[in-house]
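Q: Second attempt. The first request was missing the SMILES, so the protein and zinc ion are both included now.
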Amino acid sequence: MSEHENVQGLCEDCGKNDAVCTMAVMMGTKTIHRKLCQACMAKTSMALAAGNLGQVLGSILAAAQGAAQPAAAPDALRPQPAPKPQAAPALPTVEGEPESCPGCGLPYAQLRQHGRAGCARCWTAFRRTVEKGLASYAPAVQHTGRRPVDSEEARRDRAVREMLQRRLEEAIAREDYESAAQLRDAMREIDRQEGAK
Amino acid sequence: MMREEDVIVGATAVLTRNYADLPFDAVSNAETAGRVISRTAGVLHGNGFTLHLLREMTADNGRALAEKGQIPAEMAGAAKNPAVLLPLEGNASVALGGSEHVFIMARRHGSALPEAVADCLAVEDQLSRRVSFAFDGQMGYLQASAEMLGTGLRAALVVHVPLLVRANRLPEALRALEEMGLRGRFCGMMGKRPRGDLLAVENRCAIGRTEQEICQLIQRGAEKVLCMEAGMRQQAAEANSLRLTDRLCRAQGLTRSARLISEIEFWCIWSDLRLGAQMELLPLTVGQVDALLPEMMDAHLRNYAEEPLAGEAMDECRCNRLRELLYDIPMENGAL
Ligand SMILES: [Zn+2]
Ligand SMILES: [Zn+2]
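A: Got both inputs this time. The predicted holo structure:
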């Protein structure tokens, strides 16, 4: 998928489409290189674990990061306090909230129990609940940090690219690899022009 | 006598982002995960990052990524279709297909928290020029987890507080942090003792403060805990505790002569070695002791030995690897 790569020949996975990228794949302790098409990259993709995986740092830091979510670590490594299966609901009840999210159908009770949304629309649908929940420990329930870059130009560039991206994902889903390759080329062209600015 | 940079083990930052048009269940939904991977890798793969799919790795290679903090621990287990973009040179990795769509994760040694956060923000810059993330004027970056709403930043300073642990003063430290709007968290428990006597000082929520303000608050919280630990160390030094010195020297004796070291024992030894190095009671540097991590973790040891070690064989390997790392004694030579 690198713009700088110039890969030729057929995809070594499906054997049908033109390969567009090479990927190093870890097989046991050996690393081999495979040429793949865009579709196979997106659908099955590839992995490697090269010996030198970047900067080494304490696993303890890993534990600190991992615990931002319910960890699937061995018992001894589970962050404390361990999450209890039937803990108190993460968010309070607010009268008059919808029964479920219009975006994803997540029931209100489930959102409160886990403090987790099913889609981006959940938080607007249940805005008053999350306002009340966060107000108990946030200094203010108003975002003050960085915001998306929202110049007219940035919006336009992203909009075109995102339209192509969605069509690419749809093409892959219906296994229309020819269109997928064309869409990928179009997106690369946009990225190339962007990079030249 | 106690230098701050020796007590703060490291800084971690996790910045999460989500795509507005995709459901938030990338953990159980392989198709959603595939779309997240395709979009994110479409921008980063080949531009300073390389994409790796976890299911095409050995389980130990996946776990080793978690041990290094390059993916959240959950991803080496539950997620259906997780992937990671590893940097060619930079400090931040990007984990995909977990409980949030995009985890940008960075770690730094010592107290370099602003730098770790900057590492994450630089990758976010690179991404957000090409894709847009779910955002709301009031709630900030929209997340699966309510706690991450706002900046999507969870940052932490990990501090080493062996004397607070011994003196049972941790509850006091945790209360002090809570009053500041922070949270103290252990990086695992070994029996009743926090693993490695380590405490992560982290933000409790991500909304209402800027990224910079979150870092500053955590730094103040860590300083508070450090002051408490420093007080205890001062007392210990003045008491000229032969008992403490004895314990720390014994820990080093174990690293030279033991034949089997369990994981629990390793963490006790590690904490003692670190304290001994800081108090200049042992001929070791803090850097040497910190460099044992994450090499001594299970997946790293199995990868190193190229064997599916377990039980006694694992404890023996841990022991030999420890000697190799600390004293340059080849693994096959065994104990001194
Ligand atoms: Zn293919
Ligand atoms: Zn929803």
